[in-house]
Amino acid sequence: MRNLINRSKIPILILFLSFSAVTAFSAPTSKATWQPAGPRVIEPKGDVVQLQGKAGLELKWLLSNTVIIDYTDLRDYKTYDAYEKNLILKAQIPASAYSSYVLKSDILENGQVYTCKLRAVALGGQKSDPVYVSFKVKK
């Protein structure tokens, strides 16, 4: 009967099988890096927002997969700097494909720049990369 495996290839086969067993049964070395897609801002569209005669500014955004998204974390900062000391509003908006939130005109000052930070938060707690939109208010 003829040998099915050439004897010179046996060490290579043993090396391959032992490497496969080590990688298959070893513990993962890092955590999963999945995160939801961030919101896509629809409004405001420009750098300057006219609020004259309006009750407020409506922020509008889209979420890509509302089945796995729990809520959108919205934070509004006075100035371009998104630091805690500049935070003027913090809200959790329940997820829907087309979401919006009205920033009331009385908290927005004429001539001031504001930055809104939006993050989608999944049911498992994973957060998307933040999406920023900045605008200057004109009343």
In CATH, the topology is named Immunoglobulin-like
What would CATH call the homologous superfamily?
Answer: Immunoglobulins
Helix content: 10-25%
Distance between the termini: 94 Å
List keywords for this structure.
5-stranded mixed beta sheet, 139 residues, Immunoglobulin-like, 3-stranded antiparallel beta sheet, mainly beta
Short description:
This protein has 139 residues and is mostly beta strands.
Question: Can you tell me about this structure?
Answer:
This protein is mainly beta and 139 residues long. It has one domain: Immunoglobulins (Immunoglobulin-like), CATH 2.60.40. 12% of the residues lie in helices and 41% in strands. It is built from 1 helix and 8 strands. The chain has one helix spanning 10-25, and strands spanning 40-43, 48-50, 56-62, 69-78, 87-94, 98-104, 113-122, 131-138. The strands form 2 sheets. Strands 2-8-7-4-5 form a 5-stranded mixed beta sheet, with no helix packed on it. A 3-stranded antiparallel beta sheet has the order 1-3-6, with no helix packed on it. A hairpin with an 8-residue loop joins strand 7 (113-122) and strand 8.
